[in-house]
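Example for tutorial group B:
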């Protein structure tokens, strides 16, 4: 009997469901039915966020940096900067 049930179940496979994009307006009209006729602006209640500008480092000549960091003076600078 179990074999027959398994055999019948294997014949009828459920189709895979596809993802459907639906707007908020369409969702409300489906949920509320024909009662919902006015449009609602959902974006009106959202907060606005100010985006801060990132600080960009100036591009300098790398050779000057290497010359200033060479020797004991440069090592002292690196050591002091790390503390």
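The residue assignment follows.
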């Amino acid at each position: 009997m179990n074999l027959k049930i398994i055999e019948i179940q294997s014949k009828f496979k459920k189709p895979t469901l596809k993802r459907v994009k639906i707007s908020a307006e369409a969702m409300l009209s489906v949920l509320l039915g024909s009662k919902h006729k006015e449009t609602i602006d959902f974006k009106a209640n959202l907060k606005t966020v100010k985006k801060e500008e990132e600080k960009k480092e100036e591009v300098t000549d790398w050779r000057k940096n290497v010359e200033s960091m060479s020797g004991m003076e440069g090592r002292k600078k690196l050591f002091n900067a790390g503390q």
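The chain has four helices and no strands. Compare this with the pattern of hydrophobic and polar residues in the output above.
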